[in-house]
Amino acid sequence: MEEYSKTMIKGLDLARAYYEKFGEPMLKEQFPDLLPYLAAGLCGSGSECFGYDDEISKDHDFEPGFCLFLPGEDLVDRKTAFKLERAYAKLPKEFMGYRRSLVQPAGGARHGVIRLGDFFLEKTGSPDGKLDFRQWLRVPGQGLAEAVNGEIYFDQYGEMTRIRQEISFYPEDIRRKKLAGNLLLMAQSGQYNYQRCLGHGETAAAQLAVYEFATSAMEVLFLLNRCYRPYYKWSFRALRALPVQSYQAELLEFLLTSDNDGEMAEEKWKVMEGICGDIIEELAGQELTSASCGDLEKHAYSVNDTIKESGLRNMHILSAV
């Protein structure tokens, strides 16, 4: 890893190199009895945990460091955790041209010793990742994305890996509920309200309709790809990398960055109709809808009708958005 230049190295590579150089030897020498209960890696908040970091990202919260995840106090007591924290704090402050910060980033610790339960509680609202369907409806997708991103170097205890696997994506009924709601919002904003707003002379409202359409369409595309949508500022980057209909990123960017006058407004409506048509085709390909028309609202209700759990199926169609 040492051969990376400072301008080229990614955060995930920097973290692993720092762990292999200093973290792993420290653990083996000072805490051999603790290794069966530890998980080590880098995941959570920050563009580097998604592999999205670049030169601009390095102006804050970019430093050599990794996470050591501990189970509850019944297995690793506070005194042992404190000793591990002290040992981590004594690791070299500089590595490959980057310095560790003495100031915690906004939102809390991203590196160092972290209790498993605290990590998953912050990201999912549940310390063990066990969510009932109502909790699945409430938890933000970006939190789930941060809970399962990055890399885990080792996990002899297995709990970190187990939880990440269990929440790797929404249960199928939840996926369909979220699809149904976002499809309906796409229909209302793009196929219906955009042109009506323009007809009323409300160009600002029309652009709000575009924003609503683009946001919902993006959510639908991530759901069709069975992938959590990350924080909004990384959504387009993540969308471009999806295997299914990643080309929609360019069309959605056009909708969001163009005006709503004359011929451009007509072109934008046609683009929205085209996006809807492509998504309907994918819905049919995944056997999510039995409707056979271009009206996305009908497909939204058709998707909702396929939900197996009656309590979830009978909830308001927008309850998951």
In short:
The chain has helices at 11-30, 47-50, 78-89, 116-124, 133-138, 141-148, 159-166, 172-199, 203-224, 235-240, 248-257, 262-285, 296-305, 310-313; strands at residues 39-42, 67-70, 94-95, 98-99, 112-115, 151-155. The protein is of the alpha+beta class.
Protein architecture, described:
This protein has 321 residues and is α+β, with helices and mostly antiparallel strands. The chain has two domains: 11-166, no CATH class; 172-313. Helices cover 53% and strands 7% of the residues. The protein is built from 14 helices and six strands. The chain has helices at residues 11-30, 47-50, 78-89, 116-124, 133-138, 141-148, 159-166, 172-199, 203-224, 235-240, 248-257, 262-285, 296-305, 310-313, and strands spanning 39-42, 67-70, 94-95, 98-99, 112-115, 151-155. Helix 8 (172-199) runs antiparallel to helix 13, helix 9 (203-224) packs parallel to helix 12 (262-285) and helix 11 (248-257) runs antiparallel to helix 12 (262-285). It is elongated, with a radius of gyration of 23 Å. The two termini are 43 Å apart.
Q: Output the structural class.
A: alpha+beta
Strand arrangement within the widest β-sheet reads 5-2-1-6
What is the number of independent domains? Answer: 2
User: Gap between N and C termini, in Å?
Assistant: 43 Å
> Based on the structure, what is the oligomeric state of the protein chains?
single chain
Would you list the SSEs in sequence order as H and E?
A: HEHEHEEEHHHEHHHHHHHH
Question: Which bin fits the share of residues in helices?
Answer: 40-55%
- Average pLDDT for all residues: 93
Give the percentage of residues in beta strands: 5-15%
